[in-house]
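Quick log. Single chain, no ligands specified.
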Amino acid sequence: MGCSQEVVSKCGSIKVHHWAHKRTEDCDTWSEPETEWHREWKNKFPENYREVTFKDANTNEYHRADIHTKDGVTIEFQNSPLSVEEFNQRNRFYKKLIWVVNGLKFKNNFSLKQHIPNPSDALLNNFEMSEMLYFKKADVLDLGISEPRLLQVYGLNSPELKGLELSDIHHAFTWNNKRKGWLQSNALVFLDFGQDFLCWLRKREQILEPFWYIQIVKKTDFISKYSQ
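-> predicted structure:
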């Protein structure tokens, strides 16, 4: 253990057998009971990438990263809600951080909607997006308004957007009672709804307002990329 504290074996009939700290002083204050979901994710990565300890030279506090790759990327698998304060602390502590969030707890409040074009497509460089509606940036700047209802609307059949196609991996989405902290993160956030892909929360910066969308990432590709 990174904190060098004494541990005892826990081999009961309810929880998975594990080691637990006999004393909690000086332990990682961010640690939480591991679920099977948490363990399954960690076991997909090389053993030497798991439970890597870091210590803050100024405060002497230490924290264990779920996964830390040879390229300096930290991956945290988050099962339970975080306070805003703790969320921001972790984002600051780890320099290159990726969150994988267990979305099963709010799966009924989240749904993928229609496919959308790739928001990074060069054909959209001069446009603002609102799902399947598009507005010229020049119009927004000229009118100086914050509501798109007064702007001329363009669609995929507009001559200006000829050639723009729907993407197989980009979606609009709805999220009722959304957990706003994940939308405010400077770190990458991937939602895991128990399928063979992750939902990467992505943001397109715009003049009117940011446009949030989902990019689908196969779990096998994610694991392969960060297991090298």
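The first helix runs from residue 36 to 42.
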